[in-house]
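Tip: read the tokens left to right.
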């Protein structure tokens, strides 16, 4: 079997998400009384609040992905699964591991990366990419060819396989209506140019809620590349650099910012001003907005991908 190691992707820190409850109310207006007080016999009762529209539950599509084989009789049957939840999707690889003709099925773990291409699209232009079990933007309905570079290993260390799995899945759900938008401006108010090593750039992020559904809560996350030494700072009290260590550690991750926004309303966006300071090494900066919507008394979280700032190495 020809195998290859999966391409290593930079992992992004996951962002916490705040509650976004969908609540709409509709009240009937009583008829005019023309100066006379309404009596219980003539007053029109208020209409009960209209129920919130039901959120779509997560849907998982699975397809056989092939078999990986090792040199000593080990093999693993792979299934690739795509789970669609709102504006995001997750691709996972499930493996059933065996050895030779034995009936023993050791517990197996999978990891790796994946790429999705639309069936009618060009082969050299992937529609979506990501890490297995990680979150990615949902590209919309269509038939997709999924290719995954998979690493399979068992707890007993008898199985250690690497290879490529292929599957075709058809997704039917439409892309949901946008509820939020993220924009970023440079020092002069226009679209920011690429960041430059050895400089500090002032950036203004604007987060807008563009739907009447939900409430004003969301969380904006900005993330640079940790190994470059980039520092993201702000005087905005709604934002903090993450605190990853155990107590009593006070060391914060200066390459990221976490901003809790609680007053977003249609027509009333929030702005956050940030300073990005680069050392001698280039770094990009990505932006994410986290929120979650109700599903009965459960919830389905959402993550909006915002602008990515590039770095000019020239």
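Filled-in amino acids:
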């Amino acid at each position: 079997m020809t195998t290859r190691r999966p391409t290593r992707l930079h992992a992004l820190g996951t962002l916490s998400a705040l509650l976004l409850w969908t609540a709409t109310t509709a009240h009937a207006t009583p008829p005019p009384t023309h100066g006379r007080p309404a009596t219980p016999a003539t007053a029109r009762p208020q209409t009960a609040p209209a129920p919130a529209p039901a959120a779509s539950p997560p849907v998982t599509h699975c397809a056989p992905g092939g078999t990986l084989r090792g040199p000593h009789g080990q093999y693993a049957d792979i299934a690739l699964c795509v789970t669609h939840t709102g504006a995001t999707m997750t691709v996972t690889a499930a493996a059933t591991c065996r050895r030779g003709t034995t009936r023993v099925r050791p517990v197996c773990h999978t990891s790796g990366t994946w790429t999705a291409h639309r069936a009618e699209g060009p082969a050299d232009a992937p529609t979506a990419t990501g890490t297995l079990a990680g979150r990615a933007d949902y590209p919309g309905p269509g038939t997709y060819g999924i290719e995954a570079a998979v690493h399979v290993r068992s707890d007993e260390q008898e199985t250690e396989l690497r290879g490529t799995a292929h599957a075709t899945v058809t997704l039917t759900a439409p892309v949901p209506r946008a509820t939020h938008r993220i924009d970023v401006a440079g020092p002069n108010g226009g679209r920011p140019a690429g960041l430059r090593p050895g400089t500090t750039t002032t950036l203004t992020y604007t987060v807008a809620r563009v739907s009447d559904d939900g409430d004003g809560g969301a969380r904006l996350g900005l993330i640079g590349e940790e190994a470059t030494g980039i520092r993201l700072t702000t005087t905005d009290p709604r934002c903090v650099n993450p605190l990853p260590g155990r107590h009593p550690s006070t060391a914060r991750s200066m390459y990221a910012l976490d901003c809790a926004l609680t007053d977003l309303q249609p027509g009333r966006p929030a702005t956050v001003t940030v300073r990005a300071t680069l050392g001698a090494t280039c770094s990009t900066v990505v932006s994410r907005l986290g929120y979650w919507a109700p599903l009965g008394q459960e919830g389905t979280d959402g993550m909006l991908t915002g602008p990515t700032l590039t770095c000019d190495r020239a």
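Residues 1-53 have pLDDT under 50 and may be disordered. The chain is about 0% helix and 45% strand.
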